[in-house]
Amino acid sequence: MTPPRGPALGRWLAALTVALIVSALSLRTYLPPLPSPLELDLALAPGEGERSEPLITSGRREAGDFLFVRQLADGRIAFGYEAWGKPSQLSAPLTRPADSRWRLRVEMPALTNIRGVFATDSPRLRLSVNGVTVFDEPQVDCHERWPREIRFAENPIGGTACGATLHGQLTLPDGRELRGWPAPLLGWRERAHGWLFVSRWPAVGTLALASLTFWAWPRRGRLTLGSRTWAAWSQTARGALGSHRHFAAVGTVALIAFLWLVSYGTFDVIAPEAFGEFYDFQALSLLHGRLDVPREAIGGEAFVVAGKFYGYFGLTPALLRLPLVIFNLGFGELTRAFMIVYFAGTLLTAYLLLRAARRLLGLGESPPPAWATWSFIGSIGLGSSVFFLGSRAYVYHEAILCGVMFAVCAAWAALQHLLDPARRWWLGSLAAGILSVHARPPTGLFALTFLAAIGTLLALEKKSARDPAPRRRASLLILACVAGVFSFNLVSYLKFRTFEGCPLRLNVQYDAARLARIEGKQFHLVNLPFMVDHYLVRPNFRLERRFPYLFVIPELRDDEWTGAKLDYFDPTLAMPYAMPALFGVAVLGGVGAFVVFPTRRRVLTAVAIAGLPMTLAMFTAIAITQRYTADFCPLLLTAAAFGTAAAETAGGRLTRIARTGIVAATIASVLITATITLHYQGSIVWGVPETVRTRYLEWSRSVDAWTAAATVRP
What we know:
It contains 23 helices and 18 strands. It is α+β, with helices and mostly antiparallel strands. The model is unreliable at 1-6 and 221-227 (pLDDT under 50). The chain folds into three domains: 6-30 and 192-219, no CATH class; 38-185, Sandwich (Jelly Rolls); 248-276 and 332-507 and 514-697, no CATH class.
């Protein structure tokens, strides 16, 4: 029997529609590399005296390249090339023809060396004039440009290489003049050709989206998802929103606060950030089949191997950028947007983790009570180092936040695997753990260790000791987790030719003296006492009568460094004081759950064991900073989920005491986190706009003035 043709035709039409729409939108903003070599005709106007005039100018001030012509005092001319900040190169003088016209054949980096465009970049400079080669350099200094940063016969960026305009004409062989923006070289035909045959990846991405549409389009006449109609799904969604309204409320409050913080109060999500372009460049390199990046993308964090520049940051955030980089959407302006996504993902997976912990403690499928939801999500989203990371949108904070999100997701999936081993939740936990490792190794180490511990726990809980299958599966899962951790070292080997994750001897900042102070290593057991003291014990703050009242002590005395091999110290408030709710509920609540629920002691032990390798790594590292306290958040909130759930089961007066204490600690956490976060953003961290610092100073003065006036009132 022949199947009906209607649904199949609809799938083809849908896929074709998606392909046409995406192609049109992509081509609308796409600018291809210019032809290289490029043939031009130059006609110079007569003039007296020596002067330099622009032929091709690319880039911007302090990052531009120039191809120019210089008229010499004796009437001859010379051609020149200069990269901003480097000496000019001049050709041998040429005699001016009678008609003052030259045929140029130009090959230079500025024609193809473009950010966000997939083309083979060439550092070669080759220039022939009337068939005579005057430049032939296999590699010259150059700068990457944005697609629109190129001009012909004009110099809008200044510098000393040449003047502002060409006195004469620069034309294509067919007679079309090039002056300013090269519109004749970038028509729809040239864009389409470059889109299909030069860049290629946008076309591949469009084909992938169309194929996905074809595969996902309903195969029946009615528009359904599975066996349910859209109306049924809509009704289910409304019911779920009502059941989880407390999470929706506190999550929205936290998300708006984080959005305000990370955008410096502007709510602009798409915007450039200082040291916020690395992952975009890394994604672009991956599409070229490389792991190195331009030096300007990594700056002082560069690791130099065989003349190429690499970052020690993981690949996960770059992989997530691939679809946007393919279509050249927001290149170099995505850090804030991705941090917001990671923050929202952390809150959602933390809520799912709380629900899984409640199921394990026998509290059923019902949503958590209002106080538990508000305190747990509030302590994470507004009262922990997860929120602190929003103080600055740059690579360091994005890497940690991405790692935290995937680690929490992995922990939730691991608990789901414990609850329902038959559904293979371990696959999702393993994938999320590996993504976390390649975003931030400490968070991924916790996630994969926790999954391995859960797999071992399941094997131990099997009744039949004669059946080797559970043990075999647990062994394979442990091996998969170990391989996931060391996959980061494998990528490091591909970059640095060593399995070290961060070989400091290759970093541009480390000289022999600096390496000698730390013996060239990242981890030292002698740092344990110092780190335990500063992360867990020392009240490293002072209270003052001026806003914001609580200040982290910025410096250490010389005797406090005794015995420790530290390379970097940033003012850091110990976790019990920085986030008392999350830390307190994780420790005290976790211990309470261990005592009250003897059948779940193995799970809680697995949480504690999973935290040991990550904690040991952090406590023996050569650096300490406030942002590193966020690395502990996946461990803390996993334990805190059990602690919060256990507080629900306390009886009578003990219930009221536990709930009151948790809520009070949450409020204190929110206030403390807001204090140290705003002060860090407004007074300490580099790269924030000057308006942010000015605004913070004005706030401080206004609050102090109001406080002073209030204290003297009769």
